[in-house]
């Protein structure tokens, strides 16, 4: 069995990702935990899309070794979502963002918390 040592840069990136996961929770608390509110409020949509872009950006800074060591997270999917949002902002499917906010971000947060210990 191989032992993987997380370096300081990776730890820092994980802490930033965790920070942005908490921002999603904060946005949900502020604007409302309601899909219809999200789907009709551009400020809510913009705030959350920007945070998801940041999560993808910081995931992209994690080493390939790190991502291979922790394969339970769909790292590539998060990074891909960042690219779609950043380069095709008008084409964002907000129903997918809502699912990401409600399902994927809480999973990512919990997973990173367990990795950081």
Note down, in words, how this protein is organized.
The structure is a single chain. The chain has helices at residues 8-31, 35-40, 42-59, 64-69, 75-87, 94-116. It contains six helices and no strands. The radius of gyration is 15 Å and the shape is globular. It is mainly alpha-helical. It has one domain. The mean pLDDT is 92. The two termini are 20 Å apart.
How do the strands and helices of this protein lay out in sequence?
Layout: H1 8-31, H2 35-40, H3 42-59, H4 64-69, H5 75-87, H6 94-116
Unreliable segments of 5+ consecutive residues:
none
Q: H/E series, N to C?
A: HHHHHH
Radius of gyration: 15 Å
User: What is the average of the pLDDT values?
Assistant: 92
Instruction: Give the termini distance in whole angstroms.
Output: 20 Å
Shape: globular
Percent strand equals under 5%
Overall domain count = 1
Based on DSSP secondary structure assignment, what is the total number of beta strands? 0
**Helical proportion?**
over 70%
Oligomerization state of this entry?
A: single chain
The major beta sheet can be summarized as: none
Class from helix and strand fractions: mainly alpha
Task: Specify the number of helices.
Answer: 6
